[in-house]
Write a structure and sequence with these properties.
Rossmann fold, alpha/beta, binds (2Z)-2-iminopentanedioic acid, about 50% helix, 5-stranded mixed β-sheet, 17 helices, globular, single chain
């Protein structure tokens, strides 16, 4: 296998699909050496097959807004790879959603899910529907309309969607309500992230953020450091950032910045419980403005328009918002202000040059597909609960999540330890995920 050759073919075939090409390139660069030690992979053309999704569904979603106007959006489900289990991955509602974005996310999801230790294939879906400024009723009508098409593509042993950007517990509720009506079955196993009274995992809302902090603890421990007393800068104020703030604060770290599309809130004394709770209101309001935090708590938070979380001096940066949200310039600014660790929580949150900058300048770095895998892992636990009609307590789920994040970290160390003893977490995560999926594909023949 030759990464350059495969990439130039993909670039010619999918011009303009920059995020998808970026995700593929990172994985291929990481696995090339190992791949070439396995002639059986080359013979079965594993890489050429792995970079193509199994199938993509595209459908029209028509709904009526509060003003009585008819609105039309496009819905998608990208079923990427089912070598190690049924398709699994979130739904993203965001105005910038395109098939290319969902292809990159589905590709990443395949490797991430392989790292979780659980049997789940990779998928992603969503719509170019923009939740910003929408009322609760509009969200409900859109979710219902979206499910009238999606329900034909999914099933508990087939494809199990969950939330992602713009899709949280509320949206999963509306989606499930319509699914149940159409399928005429109470099949809780068809979606994860459900409410805890109707089959949801009690810890799923927190799990991505909690898992990210458990991974960070493992990474710091390996580096001989401790998170207690560290200053953290976090981007975003959605579900993931909320869980990360909760756990970081509980572990004795100080979250001194959160950010949004409008700017950054600097919180010199660290975010507190009241402010963390308020993040939920900010998300539910669909205003998409972090300034609301400073308006609500003027004595604790100062808002600066147009700035990112990366402009605030910190020890550890946790991107928790969107892909490519941290550039090489941001990485340099973080380093200049004393940051020594970046654990990417958002999928592909750092631009390739930012990752290189961190790696070449002694900043500990771990990629999203390892750091944020606790979310989908807890979805996998929810699937197990649903299939066996049991419910675990929060403590039980948390214990399993600890174990899974430790195991993901161990896999990164196993495959990412370099001759000089340092750990390349990007390589480690990619090779570990790849080996599992590739082996399964090989054993299942040419399909
Ligand atoms: O990016 C992700 O891993 C998710 N959005 C969660 C997917 C899931 O199926 O829980």
């Amino acid at each position: 296998m030759n990464t350059k050759e495969i990439m130039s073919k993909l670039q010619a075939k999918y011009p303009g699909e920059s995020e998808y090409l970026q995700a593929v390139q990172e994985v291929l660069e990481s696995v090339e050496e190992v791949y070439n030690q396995h002639p059986e992979f080359e013979k079965a053309k594993i890489v050429e097959r792995m970079v193509e999704p199994d199938r993509i569904f595209t459908f029209r979603v028509t709904w009526i807004d509060d003003a009585g106007e008819v609105q039309t959006n496009t819905g998608y489900r990208v079923q990427f790879n089912s070598a190690i289990g049924p398709y699994k991955g979130g739904l993203r509602f965001h105005r910038a959603v395109t098939p290319s974005m969902l292809k990159f996310l589905g590709f990443e999801q395949t490797f991430k899910n392989a790292l979780t230790t659980l049997p789940m294939g990779g998928a992603k879906g969503g719509s170019d529907f923009d939740p910003v400024g929408k009322s609760n009723d509009e969200i409900m009508r859109f979710c219902q309309a979206f499910m009238t098409e999606l329900w034909q593509c999914i099933g508990p042993d087939q494809d199990i969607p969950a939330g992602d950007v713009g899709v949280g517990g509320r949206e999963i509720g509306y989606l499930y309500g319509m699914y149940k009506k159409l399928a005429r079955e109470y099949n809780t196993g068809v979606l994860t992230g459900k409410g805890s009274t109707w089959g949801g995992s009690i810890l799923r809302p927190e799990a991505t953020g909690y898992g990210a902090l458990y991974f960070t603890q493992n990474l710091l421990h390996k580096a001989g450091k401790d998170i207690a007393g560290c200053k953290l800068a976090i981007s975003g104020f959605g579900n993931v950032a909320w869980g990360a703030c909760k756990k970081a604060t509980e572990l004795g770290a100080k979250v001194i910045a959160i950010s949004g599309p409008d700017g950054v809130c600097h919180i010199p004394d660290g975010i507190d419980a009241e402010m963390i709770d308020y993040m939920l209101d900010m998300r539910a309001s669909n205003r998409n403005r972090v300034e609301d935090m400073a308006t609500r708590f003027p004595e604790k938070a100062q808002f600066t328009a147009g700035k990112k979380a990366w402009s605030v001096a910190c020890d550890i940066a946790l991107p928790c918002a969107f892909q490519n949200e941290l550039s090489a310039d941001d990485a340099a600014e973080l380093k200049a202000n004393g940051c020594w660790c970046c654990c990417e929580v958002s999928n592909m949150g750092c631009q390739p040059d930012a990752i290189k900058y961190f790696q070449h300048n002694g900043v500990l770095f771990a990629p999203g597909k390892a750091v944020n895998a606790g979310g989908v892992a807890t979805s996998g636990l929810e699937m197990t609960q649903n299939a066996s009609h049991i419910s675990w307590s929060g403590e039980e789920v948390d214990q399993k999540l600890h174990f899974i994040m430790k195991s993901i970290h161990e896999q990164c160390v196993k495959y990412g330890t370099q001759p000089d003893g340092s750990i390349d977490y990007v390589k480690g995560a990619n090779i570990a995920g790849f080996m599992k999926v590739a082996t399964a594909m090989l054993e299942q023949g040419i399909i």
